[in-house]
Amino acid sequence: MRALLQLRLLRLSGPVGLGLAAAAAPLVLAETADRALRSLQLQALPVLSVLLMQAALAWTPSEARRWPGGRDDPEAGRWLGLLLMAVAVTALRVGSDRWLERLVAIPVIADWRTFALKLPFAALVQPLFLVIGIYAFSLRLGRRRHVALAAVTLMHELVVVLQFGRVLDPVPLAGLVGLAGLHGLLGAVAYARYGFAGPVALATLSFCRHAGYLLLAA
Fold it and tell me: Is the pLDDT of residue 24 over 60?
């Protein structure tokens, strides 16, 4: 726990966490109609973002120091693997989109303004909350990497169950949960292998599939 309280780490986690919260604020303002809920989200987002960044820096220092092409990175020549992983995740998401739209009505990104509003949240904030933060806390509590990988996987599956559990039949729900778990596992592996760049690259390229949809529609 002492590692979490290191002020020297706050010099990085503070500005980065606040920056992520600021990037996601326009989406909260645009999509949260309830004034009290919007205010709560805007207050909680910076605190949670800084906390999760601090946890990642304190409890997963080897991952946090790993940057593409760094001199001290023993995997600097293998970043092509991250690109291939991101392409695979994007293909999974495209396939699940096509499948899911036949089962249930889901919100679509219908214009470039919505795409721009959601991109910072999907590409930066969600990886921090659903992959990096969960991984860091699980590794600290479980002290084993496979526990952290399992926790991230289960969190992704839980999100799908909460979102679609009441509107999908058991068989398609099980398939969607499996896909979400695979997506979460790949994100956690990407963080363990490539550091912050891993889950961010996967989330960014995956979300940019919506840009392809918009171009095709145009």
Answer: yes
Determine the Cα–Cα distance for residues 153 and 138; give it in Å rounded to an integer: 11
State whether the Cα torsion 60-120-20-1 is positive or negative. negative
Would you give the end-to-end CA distance of the chain in angstroms? Answer: 52
CB under 8 Å to 198, separation ≥6 — which residues? Answer: 82, 85, 187, 189, 190, 191, 192
* Residue 33 CB neighbours (<10 A): 7
By the 8 A CB rule, do 172 and 116 touch? Answer: no
* SS3 letters across 61-85: HHHHCCCCCCCCCCCHHHCHHHHHH
Instruction: Answer yes or no: are the C-beta atoms of 4 and 141 closer than 8 Å.
Output: no
- H helices of the chain, where? 7-31, 35-59, 61-64, 80-100, 112-120, 126-127, 133-142, 145-164, 170-194, 197-207, 209-217
Structure tokens belonging to residue 175: 């398939």
Q: Would you place residue 107 in the very low, low, confident or very high pLDDT band (cuts 50, 70, 90)?
A: confident
Which one has a higher pLDDT value, 75 or 199?
199
pLDDT digits (tens, 9 = 90+) for 92-103: 899 888 888 888
Higher pLDDT, 33 or 49: 49
Residue 54: Cβ within 10 Å count: 23
